[in-house]
Amino acid sequence: MNAIELTVEKVVYGGDGLARLPEQDGRRQVVFLPRTLPGERVLAEVSPPRVLKILEPSPDRVEPGCEYFGRCGGCQLQHASYDAQVAIKRAVLVETLRRTGGVTWTEPISVHTGEPWGYRNRIRLHRAGTHWGFFELGSHRVLPVSHCPIADPELSAAIAELTGEEDGAEIELTAEKFAGGGFEFQVSDGAFFQVNRYLGSELVEVVTGGVEGGAAVDLFSGVGLFALPLARRFGSVTAVESASVAVRDLRVNARAFANIEVVAGSALRFAQREQVAPDLVVADPPRAGLGKELVAALASMAPRRLHIVSCDPATLGRDLKPLLAAGYAIEEVHLFDLFPQTYHLETVVKLQRND
């Protein structure tokens, strides 16, 4: 197909703009166009999707803040103003929850934002000959870089100091300290920890604050980001983690708290055998979400409150649907922009069981 003029309707999860081709046989085929914004009129090729020219730019379009944008696979939204990025993510969250979970949330969504640049407290680079860099967009080819504007400035500066003589095919640069919620954490290479150095404490307060009681469970506990603050609010905390490297860090980080029990094992197995309903369950699963079996086990466990931390709105919607059917109601929805300049977003949903 030759070049065609299209109007972008919206930006979808993944960062591409959605446009529709002229009607044919009663249907309008959808095409996804990278680095476009809602309302823009563009000249594009459809197969493969490629924007040739922005005919009418959005007022939210800005000059990207990184010379590697468009080639590096790390960022997708640097061409949008920060306010526009946040608005896009909110719209994506609302639509995705409705589409994948049938969740129509009409109450306010609390949006939490921080500095849009220099926020990452760890970055992983890959070897490119005698240089280091990130994977190129849509490939595993390495794009050599000398800096990264979304990384902590000290980490960004350290990229240029790498000589290419370091051991291994990849290297991780990390901040000197990992902190959140008033605690400092030991975080070994390979252990998960939230990367945004500005919003960590705010995330902890939203997830663990405003509730206290006798017993809490922290599923997918990692190194203890939520377990330690929970230990100040609950009589006992059970922190469940399956990754051995994270369990080691968790035991070190929790050693000052006699009321934290560390369980090395899967969240599913723990939930399936737990017989006593805790006052609160915090669950921070990986991108795949809780999954059907764990959702069923949580519904049977029947905690009074359930706080879900999700990095994927599609799996979040899928998990919420059966929980709502099992008698839980959504109290609050929070959107944390932990990953500015990218399409990624973090959501906290607080649920309470309807007795």
Characterize the structure shown.
There is one protein chain. This protein is α/β, with parallel strands linked by helices. The chain is built from eight helices and 19 strands. It has helices at residues 82-101, 153-161, 200-208, 227-231, 244-253, 267-273, 292-301, 313-325; strands at residues 4-11, 17-20, 30-33, 41-45, 50-56, 110-112, 122-128, 131-135, 142-144, 170-174, 178-180, 183-185, 213-219, 234-241, 260-264, 280-283, 305-310, 328-336, 346-353. Helix 1 crosses helix 8 and helix 6 (267-273) packs parallel to helix 7 (292-301). The radius of gyration is 22 Å and the shape is globular. The N and C termini lie far apart (59 Å). The mean pLDDT is 95.
Reconstruct the topology from this structure.
Elements: E1 4-11, E2 17-20, E3 30-33, E4 41-45, E5 50-56, H1 82-101, E6 110-112, E7 122-128, E8 131-135, E9 142-144, H2 153-161, E10 170-174, E11 178-180, E12 183-185, H3 200-208, E13 213-219, H4 227-231, E14 234-241, H5 244-253, E15 260-264, H6 267-273, E16 280-283, H7 292-301, E17 305-310, H8 313-325, E18 328-336, E19 346-353
Parallel strand pairs: 6-18, 13-14, 13-16, 14-15, 16-17
Antiparallel strand pairs: 1-2, 1-4, 2-3, 4-5, 7-8, 7-10, 8-9, 11-12, 17-19, 18-19
Brief summary:
About 25% of the residues lie in helices and about 30% in strands. The chain has helices at about 80-100, 155-160, 200-210, 225-230, 245-255, 265-275, 290-300, 315-325; strands at about 5-10, 15-20, 30-35, 40-45, 50-55, 110, 120-130, 130-135, 140-145, 170-175, 180, 185, 215-220, 235-240, 260-265, 280-285, 305-310, 330-335, 345-355.
